[in-house]
């Protein structure tokens, strides 16, 4: 049996988990999330715990067992405490501004880039070169942060661009002066 899949999920305070047919609905102070169960995977709620079981030991059921458990655990964490991804902008003249809920990025292009956050996503700036992407849906937070990073990924010669906080960018030496 899957080590991840067989571990029960504790329902933290403030979270409410309901089963509606083949849908798992999780609500809490940060929002609401839904997940439709795959065939062969069952969920039971008992004693403030969610238990995920599978129908057989076939390869598809084994792979979906741990995945389903992890997704439901992330949903519970998201609606209670939320998720955050931090990005750093490095480069002369590169900066970010927040006007209302629009994120305005100046990244060395001939134009500024305006980003409207998806529902459930919030941008927070620290200074003009640190962006925090927060939300209750882990997948959407990661997807939004990855999209922002893809606008100007860090380049290997000077390290300019947008990177995740704490990300190590492998640097190249560049040209050496001829003798």
The first-level CATH class of the largest domain is given as: Alpha Beta
Strand tally: 13
Order of helices and strands: HEEEEEEHEEEEEEHE
The end-to-end span amounts to 65 Å
Q: Report strand order across the widest sheet.
A: 11-12-7-13
Report the biggest beta sheet as strand number plus sense, adding barrel if it closes.
4 strands, antiparallel
CATH topology of the largest domain: Outer Surface Protein A, domain 3
**CATH homology superfamily of the largest domain:** Ribosomal protein L6
If helices are DSSP runs of H or I spanning 4 or more residues, what is the number of helices?
3
Low-confidence stretches: none
Shape, principal axes of CA atoms: elongated
Number of domains: 2
Percentage beta strand: 35-45%
Known CATH architecture of the largest domain: Alpha-Beta Complex
Cα Rg: 21 Å
The portion of residues assigned to helices is 10-25%
Chain-averaged pLDDT: 92
Alpha-beta content class: alpha+beta
């Amino acid at each position: 049996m899957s080590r991840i899949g067989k571990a029960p999920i504790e329902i933290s305070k403030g979270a409410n988990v309901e089963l509606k047919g083949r849908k798992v609905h999780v609500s809490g102070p940060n929002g609401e999330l839904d997940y439709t169960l795959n065939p062969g995977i069952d969920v039971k709620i008992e004693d403030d715990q969610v238990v995920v079981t599978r129908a057989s030991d076939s390869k598809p059921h084994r792979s979906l067992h741990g995945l389903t458990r992890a997704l439901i655990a992330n949903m519970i964490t998201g609606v209670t405490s939320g998720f955050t991804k931090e990005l750093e902008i490095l480069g002369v003249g590169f900066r970010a501004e927040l006007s209302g809920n629009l994120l305005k990025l100046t990244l060395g292009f001939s134009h500024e880039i305006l980003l409207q956050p998806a529902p459930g996503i919030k941008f927070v700036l620290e200074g003009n070169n640190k962006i925090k992407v927060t939300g209750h849906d882990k997948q959407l937070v990661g997807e939004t942060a990855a999209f922002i990073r893809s606008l100007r990924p860090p380049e290997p010669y000077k390290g300019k661009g947008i990177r995740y906080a704490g990300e190590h960018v492998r640097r190249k030496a560049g040209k050496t002066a001829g003798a």
